[in-house]
């Protein structure tokens, strides 16, 4: 008997391990993160019923999944925001913001794609990177670029180095520049669209790859995403995927294709939002085509608030930041409170809305939890696992209690429950004045009770010195230390 028992036990163990392996592999969801660029909280009807824009695909996504009304990008501009999404860390922990000079993510950083890749995921990024390369992004451009997406966790990359109004303009595939920006393009702007010359069909003068046209970039990136998904769908699908589609719109230049012109009543901006919605709809349709919808966790959000001034609100009667104050770049909510959709059929309830506080850094631990991955204990992230909230479960207390945003002027503001503290006066960002000195008798900072005052109009800084003191201490504590992830 003894002779048979050992092999039998070994066989049992072998099949057990094999079975668990196969089972866990099958259970891992695909993860699709779609990041719009400068899409405002108020641009979509699911977040702002008074929106003047048309977005049928995102309206449908809201019905098929959950939307989150208290979700934030960790920075009010592209670079900071993207760093947080990819690393799960607050952007004030970055050593440098000089994306034109260097790669902004440390080589040994365990990014979200790297962690997923280590755990059996196929990873791809398509779109705007904006987190730098070792060789920099100043002419002359190196034909091979390191320290970018494929050196920070993505198996595949196609896209552009920065924003579509920042030269030089060229595509990169994996580590290779597709065509060097050896031609020159003149700057462009359309003063009739938007309040400033930095809106409308605005781009800066500089180098451009021969043949590249600004208006083709969003369609090209969408096609690349469709092609990648189609290829995955036709493959044997041995691995789950993590696909990051970082759109270049509705950031400037606002260049809607002809078929989208006139689709909104907010000029080329709103028409461009409709094109963004159409691109997202086509990507989601590709999941359907390959029967990938059910096992794919879809997240759609924006990297920061809209480039939309009070004058634009008045002209078009459209609040791109919804009920919130300010715009892209600002410490006020308009800078960083963003639309946030999650769809995962059978796991995330349909048509539900949550006002739980969360931020883009939370995508890190929530996605790894959805994938059944336990990150190493030594990991240093500012992320919370929000999966219980995403699954529509009741929680006794908020999972995320505090959130720190960083403005374009590098001002750190802290939200804690219903309260929001901005330690300076001014927007901290693009709304003027960015910073101002207090008048005699005026407080030195801003404290708002967001629940009753979402538009941050009633400064309670002097009325609640104890809350100011506690929140400043919290801000300092989080700045100076990174908390281990909570289970
Ligand atoms: Ca942006």
Task: Jot down its keywords.
11 helices; binds calcium ion; 487 residues; 15% strand; Alkaline Phosphatase, subunit A; single chain; Arylsulfatase, C-terminal domain; alpha/beta
* Outline: globular
Assign the CATH architecture of the largest domain.
Answer: 3-Layer(aba) Sandwich
**What's the structural domain tally?**
2
How many strand elements?
Answer: 18
What is the CATH fold-level name of the largest domain? Alkaline Phosphatase, subunit A
The profile of the biggest β sheet is: 10 strands, mixed
Structural class: alpha/beta
Annotate the secondary structure layout.
Blueprint: H1 2-27, E1 30-36, H2 56-64, E2 66-68, E3 71-72, H3 78-87, H4 112-118, E4 122-128, E5 156-160, E6 172-173, E7 176-177, E8 183-185, E9 206-208, H5 214-234, E10 241-246, H6 267-289, E11 296-302, H7 310-316, H8 333-336, E12 340-343, E13 352-354, E14 358-359, H9 362-370, H10 387-390, E15 402-406, E16 412-416, E17 419-422, E18 446-449, H11 465-480
Parallel strand pairs: 1-10, 1-11, 2-13, 3-14, 4-5, 4-10
Antiparallel strand pairs: 2-12, 5-6, 6-7, 8-9, 11-12, 15-16, 16-17, 17-18
This protein binds calcium ion.
Calcium ion (CA) binds next to loops.
């Amino acid at each position: 008997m003894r002779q048979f028992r050992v092999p039998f036990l070994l066989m049992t163990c072998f099949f057990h391990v094999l079975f668990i392996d196969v089972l866990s592999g099958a259970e891992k969801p695909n993860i699709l993160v779609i990041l719009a660029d400068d899409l405002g909280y108020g641009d979509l009807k699911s977040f702002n019923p008074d929106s003047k824009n048309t977005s049928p695909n995102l309206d449908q996504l809201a019905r098929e999944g959950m939307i989150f009304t208290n979700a934030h990008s960790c920075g009010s501009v592209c670079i900071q925001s993207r760093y947080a999404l990819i690393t799960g860390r607050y952007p004030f922990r970055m050593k440098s913001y000089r994306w034109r000079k260097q790669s902004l993510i440390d080589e040994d950083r365990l990014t979200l794609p790297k962690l997923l890749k280590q755990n059996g995921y196929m990873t791809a990024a398509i779109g705007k990177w904006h987190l730098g390369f070792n060789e920099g992004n100043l002419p002359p451009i190196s034909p091979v670029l390191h320290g970018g997406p494929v050196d920070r966790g993505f198996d595949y990359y196609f896209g552009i180095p920065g924003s579509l109004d920042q030269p030089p303009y060229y595509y990169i595939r994996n580590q290779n520049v597709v065509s060097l920006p050896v031609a020159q393009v003149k700057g462009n702007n359309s003063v009739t669209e938007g309040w400033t010359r930095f809106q409308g069909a605005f781009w800066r003068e500089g180098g451009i790859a021969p043949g590249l046209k600004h208006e083709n970039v969003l369609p090209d990136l969408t096609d690349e995403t469709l092609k990648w998904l189609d290829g995955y769908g036709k493959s044997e699908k041995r691995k789950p995927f993590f696909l990051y589609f970082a759109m270049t719109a509705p950031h400037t230049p606002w260049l809607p294709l002809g078929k989208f012109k006139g689709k909104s009543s907010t000029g080329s901006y709103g028409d461009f939002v409709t094109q963004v919605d159409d691109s997202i709809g086509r990507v989601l349709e590709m999941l359907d085509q390959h029967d990938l919808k059910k096992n794919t966790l879809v997240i759609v959000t924006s990297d920061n608030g809209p480039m939309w001034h009070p004058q634009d609100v008045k002209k078009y009667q459209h609040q791109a930041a919804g009920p919130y104050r300010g715009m892209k770049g600002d410490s006020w909510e308009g800078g960083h409170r963003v639309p946030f959709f999650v769809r995962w059929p059978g796991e995330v309830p349909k048509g539900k809305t949550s006002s739980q506080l969360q931020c883009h850094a939370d995508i890190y631990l929530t996605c790894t939890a959805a994938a059944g991955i336990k990150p190493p204990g030594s990991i240093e992230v500012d992320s919370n696992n929000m999966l219980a909230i995403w699954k529509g479960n009741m929680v006794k207390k908020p999972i995320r209690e505090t959130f720190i945003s960083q403005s374009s002027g590098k001002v750190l503001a802290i939200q804690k429950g219903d309260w929001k503290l901005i330690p300076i006066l001014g927007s901290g960002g693009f709304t003027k004045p960015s910073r101002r000195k207090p008048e005699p008798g005026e407080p030195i900072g801003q404290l708002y009770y967001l629940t009753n005052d979402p538009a941050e109009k009633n400064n309670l800084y002097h009325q609640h010195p104890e809350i100011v003191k506690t929140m400043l201490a919290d801000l300092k504590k989080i700045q100076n230390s990174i908390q281990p992830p909570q289970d």
